[in-house]
Specification:
By secondary structure, this protein is of the alpha/beta class. It has helices at 18-29, 47-54, 72-82, 101-110, 144-149; strands spanning 4-14, 36-42, 61-65, 85-90, 122-126, 129-133. Strands 3-2-1-4 form a 4-stranded parallel sheet. A two-stranded antiparallel sheet has the order 5-6.
């Protein structure tokens, strides 16, 4: 990684979902923050996805195809190793971003000294409606790992979306929107 000041490297791993991938890429290209690159890692041979990527004519898009599938996590790591930006943002191939997402997150990143983790709420669309989660922000005294990585079986005081993430501790200072550092 070269660490070009202010550049955000958006890493997307994919396989066999060309149509969804193009939607995700479109949401990145529509960002109000323009200092970005998109690094797509196609996790194994996938002619349809390669053809779709070839139809995107934007110098900010780079991609590589793994010779064989290494799984989503390692494909993301491949993308991070190829990233040139100061910051890395992950986007799943079946998700899309609202237009000001990166602009707001970079503004927050620039306001803190040292390493930081920035996240945002998500809108989950289902046949039953839209759900925004999490419903609350971390409490000022709450350890970030308790907020993010609490096992799904324990109540977090919120309804709607709950990330199912591995339980490990975040050991660096983090600042989240709407909380005091």
């Amino acid at each position: 990684m070269t660490d070009l000041e202010g550049l955000v490297s958006v890493v997307i791993s994919t396989r066999g979902r060309a149509e969804l991938l193009l939607r995700a890429i479109g949401s990145v290209l529509a960002q109000t923050y323009g200092l970005l690159e998109i690094v797509v890692v196609v996790d194994g041979p996938d002619e349809e996805t390669e053809l779709a990527l070839g139809g995107v004519h934007d110098d900010r898009l780079r991609w590589q195809v793994n010779g064989q599938s290494v799984g989503g996590s390692e494909a993301r790591n491949v993308g991070v190793r190829a990233a040139r930006g100061e910051w890395v943002a992950f986007l799943d191939d079946d998700d899309e971003w609202l237009p000001a997402k990166l602009e707001r997150q970079v503004e927050l990143l620039r306001s803190v000294a040292g390493p930081a983790l920035v996240s945002c709420r998500i809108i989950t669309r289902t046949p039953r409606g839209e759900f925004v989660g999490p419903e609350r922000e971390p409490r000022p005294t709450e350890h970030l790992s308790e907020y993010l990585f609490r096992p799904a079986g324990r109540s977090r005081g919120e309804r709607g979306c709950r990330p199912r993430l591995p339980s490990y501790r975040v050991s660096w200072p983090c600042t989240c929107p709407g909380t005091r550092a």
